[in-house]
Design a protein that fits this description.
Chain lengths: 135, 109
């Protein structure tokens, strides 16, 4: 029976650890054990019964989706990217303006690198809003 | 065995029907499906629990803990009144789908 628990632990290892997954996990182990007992009653060896139960368990991807493994993580990533790009481009812009005003106050050249750097937050904004629309 | 992706879209109906008859637990349901279909269709456990999760979130079924078996407590599912309404919608839909597909499949070998 340890083998079943071990196998399910293995399948669940990259799922979020919370009450919900724990309950589902317990439920699955409980039912698999029941299946094994049933198979043994039918005259199977314990080893065979356990293997059969594990093989027939199937693919866990659907369950992962239901328990929401990756979805929230990606959403916050786009937002984080946008925030980072805003802060980063803000700092770089301030830096160029300062250098420009301090050393060559009579020639305005900082506008060129600033225009270039603006593509960064713009593209991140695009990624973020596209994600928002698709939800 | 039947291609499972065709049946997939109707797993909700199958499971709700079985729970409608009486409250059941996971293994009992997968067992019942195999018995009734004479092993022509077997549901994978992993799929079954994904469906339970989905149906529970939709509030068409609810779970409670029942008697203790070999390992631990059995988790039973019962259908809610929303579930009954949902199932009868599914039945209507299925009748419709069956008629439509039959229009094209009937009379062919």
């Amino acid at each position: 029976m340890k083998k079943i628990k071990h196998h399910i632990d293995e399948l669940f290892k990259d799922m979020p650890r919370n009450n919900e997954t724990e309950m589902v996990k317990q439920e699955i182990i409980e039912n698999l054990e029941e299946k094994v007992f049933y198979l043994i009653e039918q005259g199977k060896e314990e080893e065979d019964a356990i293997n059969k139960a594990i093989v027939e368990f199937g693919d866990i991807d659907d369950l992962k989706k239901e328990l929401g493994v990756k979805a929230p993580e990606k959403k916050s990533m786009a937002k984080l990217n946008l925030e980072f790009s805003l802060w980063g481009s803000g700092l770089i812009t301030a830096f160029f303006i300062f250098i420009n005003l301090y050393y060559t106050p009579n020639t305005i050249w900082a506008i060129y690198p600033i225009f270039a750097i603006l593509w960064w937050p713009l593209s991140m904004y695009f990624v973020w809003s596209r994600k928002k629309w698709s939800e | 065995m039947v291609r499972s992706d065709i049946i997939r879209g109707h797993l909700d109906s199958i499971i709700l029907r079985l729970i409608l008859e009486k409250d059941r637990y996971g293994y009992e349901i997968s067992q019942e499906i195999s018995v009734r279909t004479n092993n022509r269709f077997q549901i994978k456990e992993a799929t079954l629990y994904a469906v339970f999760q989905r149906l529970e979130k939709k509030e068409v079924i609810e779970a409670y803990y029942g008697d203790v078996s070999h390992g631990g407590k059995r988790k039973y599912y019962r259908i809610t009144s929303l579930g009954k309404a949902y199932l009868s919608e599914l039945v209507k839909e299925w009748t419709e789908v069956k008629e439509i597909i039959d229009l094209f499949m009937e009379g062919l070998e």
